[in-house]
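Summary for the funding panel

The consortium committed to producing paired sequence-structure records for every protein in the target list. Below we show the first two records in order, beginning with the earlier of the two.
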Amino acid sequence: MRRAKHRGNTGKKKNHYRPRRYKREMAKRRIFIHQVNNEENTCKDEAVAVAANTTEEHNAMQQPELINDHSCNGSTLSKEDAITILDNDFYTLADLIKMGDLEIRFLVETLFPEQCLIFLAGESDCGKSTFCSQLALSIVSGAEYFLGFKINVKHKRVIIISTEDSYPAIFNKINLQMQKNNLSLEDTERLIISTTSVSIIEKLTKVLKSFPVALIIIDSFADVYDGDINTVNKVRDYLKDYDELKKKYNCTILFVHHIGKSREGKGIHKNQLLGSVGIEGKARQVLMMSKLNKLFSERVISIIKGNYVSEEDKKKSLLLSFDHDTRTFEKADGNFTLPEVSKKKGRQVDMKLVEEALKLKNEGKRLEEIGKILGKNKSTISRWFKNLKYPYDFENVDSDDDDAEDDD
């Protein structure tokens, strides 16, 4: 047996057999690790397959009636196609065609589309809450029409959340209205009333899980919304929860809202809504109730925004008369055309003063000097010159409210 040679003065010996044994040992370890990984991957694949089969069976058991409801040209969708559609948040056009009839439906023709967020706005003490409770009674009683508009409901059940009135006040009003609506005991059980203003979504979800509802009335929006009503993003984020709620449970949500105090009596327009434009933007339909004149018995309902109604319907307004004894509205005779919103005109400018100011400028006078001579401030003189066009058009010179400062 040969001895290992010494190299220099390091005192280390080279073992010619160690590298071979080391390589063989490492090769065995790699083979073992590879086998273990293959076994683990096999177990994972089997677990995923079992979970997928279980989920598919569970979905098929949970939604049998929905599968049978979707049809196209009279033929029912296959089980696999229906599960694919119901499990997705995104649909192809082919999926929508397979679903069949997807027309826009109305809870009350023209006035209230189904499965939408709707706002009814108006100044205080014009009868918004009374109008809504009358609508609720018409639905739960199975009436065919509401103020001359056809009612189309599958479930004759309504929820009223009234944050402004007490239970006695609500009952007394509805008790008077029941004189015009023939309600049975079964009908009264389908009208649910609450005065809560907290945790609305959670409480509504609990009710909607128990039985279907056609309409939810929230009176009023300002009481249930606790954020900054003038911030667009916050308002839209708040309404997202109600949007998801009405989609999930196929119901319509009607908010009662107010208009700004400073905007009362200034025509009928969606910009009069109290708060951010996010309210009008998120709602699919906005109605406004207004007083036609100083008489308490006359009201007008106008559609100031409607994504699913024609322009002709928006121009037509519903003229109503109010019965004090029964606290109900009736459709009045006659037509009412929505007036144009009047624009505030600026104060007129004395053109002789403008001409005089131009002459003084051509003489080399400064704005401060012209202002002292004419009794106007520097900003007013400057604005006159900016509005003038060459050749000078003295008829189109605008006057702002800043002229009020000139009187000082």
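The next record, for a separate protein in the list, is shown here:
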Amino acid sequence: MKKLNAGFVHPEILIVVAIVGFIVAVFIGNNPLSPSILPPSPTPVATESSVENWKTYRNEEYGFSLKYPADLNINTQDNDIYLFFISFFDPDNLDRTISVTVRGANLKEQILFEEWAASHTLIELDNRKDLIFQNFPATRLDYVPTSGSGNKPTSALIVNNGKYSYSISSHPDTLTQILSTFEFLDKSYADESIDYSCNTDSDCVKQSTCSEDCVNSSWLKDYPYTGPACGIPWQFGCKCVDSKCISG
């Protein structure tokens, strides 16, 4: 697949692309490619039944795959802000844009980065939900346009698999479909033997003062942290959500 350089992107959205991937999806989805051409009526998003007819995109370098509507175009970029960015878009209906950003940050850092980037656009956070995605801690951010902006709503799932943080973004109606097809190629980062279960926040601790991984405190006593010397288990910054220990 041939990479397209930054010059391929319309000037109005270039700076947004440089800030963060999912903001690209927001901005592309709300700005026509050419100001002299009126956009067509929005095309309805695909239904769940059509996912099986989508194409598969696979990235061996960053270890993920997903399906996307077969008629969408692909644009990839990378720079000093993120390791990798890809968008799937329909130039005639940019509301359908899907993007994936890969960065070397931990989950907390990535969430803060995404929220900071969003604060520089005409959207605002409407809902935040911490969850577990494919056995990894994740957070879903749902944004709505600011009053009078004319922008569209957008959603992003941010997940860290122990190696990279991934931000998967699209229109809210599409995100669930995309996530149902998303897979990590390297399963070795998912250590299912780790006990993340909990009943209350007090059941959860970080494995060490330099770890973002929140686990069951009783399990940690039986399987002490053996990574870099970073001090003792740390209670602060963990909570119990849907019976799973997560950082937050």
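Regarding this second record: The radius of gyration is 19 Å. The longest strand covers residues 123-133.
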